[in-house]
């Protein structure tokens, strides 16, 4: 297990050493979203009866930050190591493919959680969110970070150049996270978009996470847990199979 | 400095350090390895030579598990690199050809992490020794991105040694580095070899292979085209040379013209056996040919290498 622990430590240290870029910047971005959207929409949008728009927005922004940063951590680390060639230092060692996966996923979760805490901390100046069911918050934060961290591994291993990774991020990850109910309840959408949102697994992660704060959600948190858990299982299986085969890592 | 700490573990059964059986590898339509069979004994200093694209790096990569052979098998100290890859990788240290590094970390962090990847904790003492032996002391806490090319090359060597592997593969370790580093590196590598580590070297600097390697394999187009001790290869494929500068008015006897070549005002006469020298000198004396300068050149591996490559053209 020392090999796994070292790889995990290295991946955490890697983002910690550039924390302005990897932690402070995404916290600032989330804060700007909150400032702008809450200022513009506070008096115009009422999602749940007893909850102001800014308070509604906070859990969504926290979860979106967790997801996007978890993805960014594993994907950027892998593409950088592949492009510069230093991935060889890990590939030469006895670390197993499962340890490799777990180390990258956990480091992604750690970064997601650190950024998530950061966003939550700065948004406390606007509105103190409720914490109706804290366990759901923890479960969805961990699961969401692990799912996007795993997706980051797939993208990082698949992409041969930064351009391909950017395409994966901009055309898949960003639309999935933005069109998932971060800024709105899907009940406010027309029927077509509402039913389409039910095919987006990120919607369930954010909805379940928000349930932990308010005790209110668009769908049952158990359904959200089922979808998120199944998504994780499928992606983890796919990633492990990919790593075991040596796809794009061992020719 | 006590480099004895790096002595490789004794094997209970004397497996070869490296065993390669009928290994083939294709990249698309390109046949990179066309059935390689090779055995390298423990403690050897072995050279793997060949022109660019001969398959040297592919063979090393297959040994290290970076490339998967299409057929055949490879083993390090008896451990198959696929089915027992964890054991095989613990026994192997590879210095890659490319000058790669992780820009986020210092030299010491890089070495501590590399050590951790191999499951070794509390390795600071050995890492300190490697740092000292490779003259990296001044840069131990410097960021990798600030190091010169030569220093980065030293760190690559150090990374390959952190887990004290009994088998060390050096893929062109001195490419583009200065004389000082070469000397430091070879001193260190010879010391490790003296302590029992098996060394496999690929290089385009044939004089390095000639002076360090006891046995050499030459690869061409994915095949081994020569495999023997360095001395035998030199004997078989290279010749000695008698270089003569004649005094003014001297004429080379006609009997020597067949084996002579004129080079920069000198006559160069090739011979395989030193007994021939006496015959040539006798012919020169009989012809009363005055000599102003004479020397005998040793055979060179470069010549043997070219002869082998041209033979199999």
How many domains is the backbone of chain A divided into? 1
CATH homologous superfamily annotation of the largest domain in chain B: P-loop containing nucleotide triphosphate hydrolases
Global outline of chain A: globular
- Residues in helices of chain A, as a percent range: over 70%
Task: Characterise this structure.
The complex is a heterodimer of chains A (251) and B (313). Chain A is 75% helix and 0% strand. Chain A is built from 10 helices and no strands. In chain A, α3 crosses α9, α5 packs antiparallel against α10 and α6 packs parallel to α10. Chain A is globular. Chain B is 33% helix and 27% strand. Chain B contains 10 helices and 14 strands. Chain B has a 6-stranded mixed β-sheet with strand order 6-7-8-3-9-10, with helices on both faces. In chain B, strands 2-1-4-5 form a 4-stranded antiparallel β-sheet. In chain B, strands 12-13-11-14 form a 4-stranded antiparallel β-sheet, with no helix packed on it. In chain B, β4 and β5 form a beta hairpin. In chain B, α8 packs across α10. Chains A and B meet through α1 and α4 of A and α2 and α3 of B.
In short:
The complex is a heterodimer of chains A (251) and B (313). Chain A has 251 residues and is an all-alpha fold.
Structural topology:
The complex is a heterodimer of chains A (251) and B (313).
Chain A lengths: L1 H15 L2 H23 L11 H32 L3 H4 L5 H27 L10 H25 L3 H17 L12 H7 L3 H14 L6 H25 L6
Chain B lengths: L17 E10 L2 E11 L4 E5 L6 H9 L6 E6 L2 E2 L4 H6 L1 E4 L11 H11 L6 H10 L15 H13 L5 E5 L7 H16 L3 E5 L3 H7 L2 E6 L2 E7 H8 L2 E7 L13 E4 L2 E6 L3 H12 L4 E7 L3 H11 L2
Parallel strand pairs in B: 3-8, 3-9, 6-7, 7-8
Antiparallel strand pairs in B: 1-2, 1-4, 4-5, 9-10, 11-13, 11-14, 12-13
């Amino acid at each position: 297990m020392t090999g796994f622990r070292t790889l995990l430590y290295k991946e955490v240290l890697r983002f910690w050493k550039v924390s302005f870029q990897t932690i402070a910047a995404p916290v600032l971005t989330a804060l700007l979203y909150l400032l702008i959207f809450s200022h513009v929409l506070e008096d115009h949008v009422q999602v749940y009866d007893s909850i102001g728009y800014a308070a509604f927005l906070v859990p969504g922004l926290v979860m979106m930050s967790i997801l996007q940063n978890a993805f960014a951590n594993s994907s950027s680390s892998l593409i950088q190591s592949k492009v510069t060639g230093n991935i060889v230092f890990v590939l030469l060692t006895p670390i197993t493919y499962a340890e490799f996966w777990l180390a990258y996923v956990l480091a992604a979760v750690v970064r997601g959680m650190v950024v998530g805490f950061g966003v939550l901390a700065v948004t406390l100046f606007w509105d103190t969110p409720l914490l109706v069911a804290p366990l759901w918050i923890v479960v969805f934060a961990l699961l969401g970070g692990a799912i996007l961290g795993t997706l980051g591994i797939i993208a990082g291993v698949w992409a041969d150049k930064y351009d391909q990774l950017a395409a994966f991020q901009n055309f898949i990850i960003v639309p999935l996270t933005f069109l998932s109910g971060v800024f709105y309840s899907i009940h406010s959408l027309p029927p077509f978009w509402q039913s389409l949102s039910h095919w987006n697994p990120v919607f369930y992660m954010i909805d379940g996470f928000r349930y932990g704060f308010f005790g209110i959600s668009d769908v049952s948190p158990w359904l959200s847990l089922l979808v998120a858990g199944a998504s994780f299982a499928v992606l983890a299986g796919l990633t492990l199979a990919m790593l075991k085969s040596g796809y794009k890592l061992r020719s | 400095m006590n480099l004895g700490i790096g002595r490789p573990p004794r094997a209970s059964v004397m497996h070869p350090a490296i065993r390669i059986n009928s290994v083939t590898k294709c990249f698309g339509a390109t046949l990179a390895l066309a059935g390689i069979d090779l055995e390298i004994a423990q403690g050897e200093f072995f050279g793997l030579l060949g022109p660019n694209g001969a398959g040297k790096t592919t063979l090393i990569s297959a040994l290290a598990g970076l490339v998967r052979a299409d057929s055949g098998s490879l083993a390090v100290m008896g451990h198959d690199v696929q089915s027992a890859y964890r054991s095989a990788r613990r026994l192997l240290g590879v210095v890659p050809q490319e000058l790669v590094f992780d820009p986020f970390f210092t030299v010491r962090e890089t070495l501590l992490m590399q050590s951790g990847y191999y499951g070794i904790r509390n390795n600071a003492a050995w890492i300190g020794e490697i740092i000292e032996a490779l003259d990296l002391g001044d840069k131990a806490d410097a960021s990798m991105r600030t190091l010169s090319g030569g220093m980065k090359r030293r760190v690559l060597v150090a990374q390959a040694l952190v887990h004290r592997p009994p088998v060390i593969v050096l893929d062109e370790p001195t490419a583009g580095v200065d004389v000082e580093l070469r000397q430091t590196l070879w001193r260190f590598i010879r010391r490790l070899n003296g302590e029992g580590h098996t060394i496999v070297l690929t290089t385009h600097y044939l004089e390095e292979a000639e002076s360090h390697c006891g046995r050499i394999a030459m690869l061409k187009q994915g095949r081994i085209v020569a495999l023997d001790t360095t001395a035998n290869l030199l004997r078989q494929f290279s010749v000695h040379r008698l270089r003569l500068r004649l005094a003014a008015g001297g004429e080379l006897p006609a009997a020597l013209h067949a084996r002579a070549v004129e080079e920069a005002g000198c006559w160069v006469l090739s011979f395989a056996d030193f007994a021939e020298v006496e015959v040539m000198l006798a012919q020169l004396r009989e012809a009363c040919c005055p000599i102003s300068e004479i020397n005998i050149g040793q055979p060179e591996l470069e010549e043997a290498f070219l002869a082998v490559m041209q033979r199999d053209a």
